[in-house]
Design a protein that fits this description.
Distance between the termini: 17 Å
Number of strands: 9
Order of helices and strands: HEHEEHHEHEHEHEHEHEH
Radius of gyration: 19 Å
Strand content: 15-25%
C-alpha cells in the first residue's frame, strides 16, 4: 500500500510539472523574454516556456511583449518601425536589476536553439498576420518536433490564418475574459467562443485567471475536446484549484518555484 501511495504521489508531481508554463521565461527572477530568463527556465527543469514575438521593419522576428522598448530599457524604439540592428543595440533588463545589464532582445531563431529535447515553446503572436510568412520560414528550419511548438494569439483571424499555414502545431485562442474591471458590463458567451474556436480549427483557449474562469467554464470547453490554458497565475493555491478543475496549462512568472510549491501541496486526498 505504501509503495502504491508513493507511485500515486510521483504521478501527481510529474502531472503538475507538465502543466506549468514559464511566462516570458523565469520572468520573476530574470528580465522577461531574454535568453537569460528562457535558459534559466530550462536549467531549472521547466518543461514549457511562453514567449512573445513581433516583426521588425526589416522582417525579422524578435522576442518582445510590448510594441516598443521603453518599459524594459532606457530607450524608446517602436519595434515595427525599427531594424533588427537598431533593436539589438538596446540594453534591456537593467531596470529589473543591475546584474542584468547588457541584455539584448533575442531573435526567434536564437530562442528556438535553446529548447531542450523535452522542452516546449509556446509562441504568442503580437504582430498582425504579416508576421506569418516569416514565422513559417523560421519554424520550417527548426529541428524541433511539431509537439514542441504551440502558438497562441488574441487576434483569432491571425490565429486562424496561422493554423492554415502551420496546421501541424497546436494553437490556442487568447482571451482576456474579466481582465479589465468593466467586465461585468458585458456577458461572456462561452457558446460563441467555442463556435469561433472550432470554426477556426483551433485546439483550445488560453484565458485570464479571473472570476469568470471556474470549473464549469473549463468543463464546457473540455466537453468539446478543447484545451484550456490559464494566464497568469502566481498563487500556488489558485493554481492548485485550476489544475483540479481541469486546466491543461498554467502560465506563471515563477515556474520553478510554482512547481515546488504545488508539489508541497500534493496529498492523496487532494489529487
Amino acid at each position: 500500500m505504501y509503495k502504491l501511495l508513493l507511485l500515486l504521489r510521483k504521478i501527481c508531481i510529474i502531472n503538475i510539472k507538465e502543466k506549468i508554463i514559464a511566462h516570458r521565461g523565469e520572468s520573476f527572477d530574470a528580465p522577461e523574454n531574454t535568453l537569460k530568463a528562457i535558459n534559466l527556465a530550462w536549467d531549472r527543469g521547466v518543461l514549457a516556456v511562453e514567449i512573445d514575438i513581433r516583426l521588425t521593419k526589416d522582417n525579422e522576428i524578435l522576442i518582445i511583449h510590448d510594441k516598443n522598448t521603453f518599459r524594459t530599457s532606457h530607450k524608446y524604439l517602436n519595434v515595427k518601425r525599427s531594424t533588427l540592428k537598431g533593436l539589438k543595440a538596446i540594453n534591456i533588463g537593467y531596470k529589473k536589476d543591475s546584474q542584468w545589464t547588457n541584455q539584448q532582445i533575442p531573435t526567434l531563431k536564437e530562442v528556438l536553439e535553446t529548447v531542450p529535447q523535452n522542452g516546449k515553446l509556446i509562441i504568442e503572436i503580437k504582430s498582425n498576420y504579416k508576421i506569418l510568412n516569416k514565422l513559417h520560414e523560421e519554424l520550417s528550419r527548426t529541428k524541433l518536433l511539431d509537439s514542441q511548438i504551440e502558438i497562441i494569439a488574441f487576434n483569432i483571424k491571425t490565429l486562424a490564418k496561422a493554423k492554415l499555414l502551420l496546421p501541424q502545431f497546436k494553437m490556442l485562442y487568447l482571451l482576456n475574459l474579466d481582465y479589465y474591471w468593466f467586465w461585468w458590463f458585458h456577458r461572456i458567451n462561452k457558446t460563441e467562443i467555442i463556435k469561433k474556436v472550432k470554426e477556426s480549427k483551433l485546439d483550445g483557449v488560453n484565458v485570464w485567471a479571473g472570476k469568470i474562469l471556474n470549473k464549469e467554464f473549463i468543463s464546457d470547453f473540455k466537453k468539446e475536446n478543447l484545451l484550456v490554458y490559464v494566464w497568469t497565475v502566481d498563487s500556488p493555491q489558485k493554481a492548485q484549484v485550476l489544475i483540479k478543475d481541469g486546466a491543461a496549462g498554467i502560465a506563471t512568472n515563477r515556474a520553478h518555484w510554482m512547481t515546488q510549491q504545488l508539489n508541497n501541496l500534493i496529498s492523496i486526498n487532494n489529487y
